[in-house]
Amino acid sequence: MGWNLEFLEKMLADKFIGRLLYYYPEIGSTNDEAFRLGIAGAPEGAAVIADSQTKGKGRLQRIWHSPPGLNIYTSILLRPNFPADQASQISIAAGVAVAEIIDEYCPSQVQLKWPNDVLLNKKKVSGMLAQVKTSADGIDFVVLGIGINVNIGYNQLPQDIRTIATSLAIETGREIDRLELIIRLYENIAKCYKEITQRGFDAIKEKWLNLAPMISQNVQVMFRNEGVSGKALGLDDDGSLIILTANNETVNVSAGDATILKES
Ligand code: BT5
């Protein structure tokens, strides 16, 4: 099923996210395009959607598998008026927003894994990549990139991620309408974004913590070749994970890949 662009534009015409919409049947990376739009001065809420990506990006130069006709690849331009060190709150809010929408399709099976993975039945269904452009005054803009595996089948997943990735169709056993999903997604991201920009981080942080099974567990966070392990205590206001190490030191980790060492 393709994108019915005319319908999508009509549905998003008066919305905060997507009223300015850039659609590509194929693109390198929607994040790169949204970043270009940000530099060119595009307004907050502008969104890029692609049906496929040839250079879909994960964090740390990793690849996001982005075949055509099946999934959601989108990047949203935001211009929050808060200090640069709080930019990660946007990824955290987006994680909550995506998780809430996925929960509507697959109730009670959604979890969040710090910093940016949405898991369905413990497998990755969505990943997020936020890129920030700062200036002397703080944040110039944030590009919030979101990939969601919607209709990709088990056999269409690359071999190396088959055991760690899933899609909404795999988990629900039915084809999901990408248009309906993205409209609900943009609406909920707008809601969660307004929550943090207008009322602060607390409510979103609380929701995030309730969806994250690693809190109170022993975890290890690897960043490049360095690891920190200990008990995950919570999230700080800059979106970093607070870890209590074996030496009783509290360490804030702001980047890396976290795994639960053993559930207690
Ligand atoms: C992420 O990175 O999870 C961020 C993914 C962001 C993708 C969106 S799509 C729209 C926008 N435009 C872009 O170019 N990017 C954003 P990370 O946590 O580093 O996870 C990457 C890892 O996830 C890979 O190394 C694989 O192991 C796995 N992976 C790759 N493609 C996947 C997929 N489609 N589904 C699930 N896992 C995948």
Protein architecture, described:
The strands form two sheets. The chain has a seven-stranded mixed sheet with strand order 1-2-3-7-6-5-4, with helices on both faces. It has two domains: 206 residues, Bira Bifunctional Protein, Domain 2 (BirA Bifunctional Protein, domain 2, 2-Layer Sandwich); 43 residues, SH3 type barrels (Roll). By secondary structure, it is α+β, with helices and mostly antiparallel strands. It contains six helices and twelve strands. Biotinyl-5-AMP binds next to helix 2, strand 3, strand 6 and strand 7.
Bound molecule types: biotinyl-5-AMP
CATH class of the largest domain: Alpha Beta
CATH architecture of the largest domain: 2-Layer Sandwich
Number of strands: 12
Number of helices: 6
- CATH topology assignment of the largest domain: BirA Bifunctional Protein, domain 2
Percent strand equals 25-35%
Widest β-sheet, arrangement of strands: 1-2-3-7-6-5-4
Shape: globular
Coarse structural class: alpha+beta
User: At the fourth CATH level, what is the homologous superfamily of the largest domain?
Assistant: Bira Bifunctional Protein, Domain 2
Helical residues, percent: 25-40%
